[in-house]
């Protein structure tokens, strides 16, 4: 038997705790109109590594903080940033195992679109399809939502520029100039708002993302991370490219050094 | 059925209100627009959708659910035209979307979509059309309707208006004025989305400049 009782108006836990039955599935609303399963899925994202996307002067870049729980892990494994077709890329944060089917689905969609229409899938269509895909899993009691927030960047043939979209576990998607997800996303957003994105190049943005990630990390100061990134810029001939390791390493070191400097300055100020 | 009640709660707790008015030969949909995140590309945060060139709708409630229903509505509209050789009438489209909404309330394991959808069009035979579909799968044709957190207040104001003889300008301004009064705000063009459908042309969103003109006309009247 479930530890619940009927109060005459709604189900509550035995000690009067609210909501105990309303989180049993995606197909259940709580009396105040919330779907708890979607909110719990969002929690999975909140506990995961940072994901930052920026639409810059010369393209779009997405950077991910890939936490490495063990030194035995190979740096390149557990990838968070994936190409999807030639003209688009996807990155996710949250429950990593859920990422694989999403990436596969996105790749299927892009390929099918190209087979059918002969042109690359436009960014808003790709984002919309992913949104619907995520949303579908929030509508059945037998499924659970994806525990992911996904960023997708894709090049638009018509307007000749890349765009950035972000999709959350509920399937809601919007287009962004700058976006952040994962742990400390509020702090990341504050840092992003300080940037002048219209004047920033992707190369410079890569370093800025590294600095933001170093800045917003707190309790995880002990767990090392790898900076993964992908971009679509004029330099990549508007194709999605995983940022080469040497550039990422450079950006990582730069971000670390800058943050240490800022940290030292703060300590000096405190003295 | 509690789940449909709770879903309607979800629509209301979104904090946004929508007003729709059907005039003599035009229909106007107005909804609030709150873009709180500076980093979002505001143009992508729209709740107005073109289902066919002649039929538009406004979605109030959970936007992911709304987008899903819009995609299904577009599919229905296309299938109808493909099977029958003529454009789907607004009333029939509304009924199909309502049927889809109803299925969710009857199948175990399915979640009710927390959206109110308001459809509008100018029908070749029947003139201006305005239909409202709710999460439970109810649908009705209206002369004027509202949805969202302050829909009760909006509906009370709309009941007093005689909309049947309104021309385009009056229809638009009545809709905007009703929304302004209901949420007690003095709107700037960026704070609302206004869409119209009128005889001779399809469903379209008004540009900020046009919205500004109407807001000014309303202010001057007061």
From TrEMBL, chain A:
Q: Where in the cell is it found?
A: Cytoplasm; Nucleus
Q: Does the keyword Acetylation apply?
A: no
Q: Which InterPro entries match?
A: Ntn_hydrolases_N, Proteasome_alpha, Proteasome_alpha-type, Proteasome_asu_N, Proteasome_sua/b
The keyword Transcription belongs to this UniProt entry's keyword annotation: no
Give the signal peptide as a residue range, or say none if absent.
none
Q: Please report the stretch or stretches of sequence annotated as the Proteasome alpha-type subunits domain.
A: 22-44
PROSITE patterns the UniProt entry points to: PROTEASOME_ALPHA_1 (PS00388), PROTEASOME_ALPHA_2 (PS51475)
Write out the GO biological process terms.
ubiquitin-dependent protein catabolic process
- What are the annotated GO cellular component locations? cytoplasm; nucleus; proteasome core complex, alpha-subunit complex
Keywords for the protein's UniProt record, in alphabetical order:
Cytoplasm, Nucleus, Proteasome
Which Pfam families did the record assign? Proteasome, Proteasome_A_N
Quote the SUPFAM superfamilies the UniProt record gives: N-terminal nucleophile aminohydrolases (Ntn hydrolases) (SSF56235)
Major subcellular location class = cytoplasm
Subunit-level organization: The 26S proteasome consists of a 20S proteasome core and two 19S regulatory subunits.
Record family assignment: Belongs to the peptidase T1A family.
List, alphabetically, the PANTHER family matched.
PROTEASOME SUBUNIT ALPHA/BETA
Q: What does this protein do?
A: The proteasome is a multicatalytic proteinase complex which is characterized by its ability to cleave peptides with Arg, Phe, Tyr, Leu, and Glu adjacent to the leaving group at neutral or slightly basic pH. The proteasome has an ATP-dependent proteolytic activity.
**Protein name as it appears in the record:** Proteasome subunit alpha type
TrEMBL record, chain B:
InterPro entries, sorted = Ntn_hydrolases_N, Proteasome_alpha, Proteasome_alpha-type, Proteasome_sua/b
Asked whether the keyword Membrane is assigned, the reply is no
- GO CC annotation terms, alphabetical: proteasome core complex, alpha-subunit complex
Per UniProt, the keywords (alphabetical) are: Proteasome
- Biological process per Gene Ontology, one example term: proteolysis involved in protein catabolic process
- Matching Gene3D superfamilies: Glutamine Phosphoribosylpyrophosphate, subunit 1, domain 1 (3.60.20.10)
User: Its family?
Assistant: Belongs to the peptidase T1A family.
Q: What is this protein called?
A: Proteasome subunit alpha type
The upper taxonomy is: Eukaryota, Sar, Stramenopiles, Bigyra, Labyrinthulomycetes
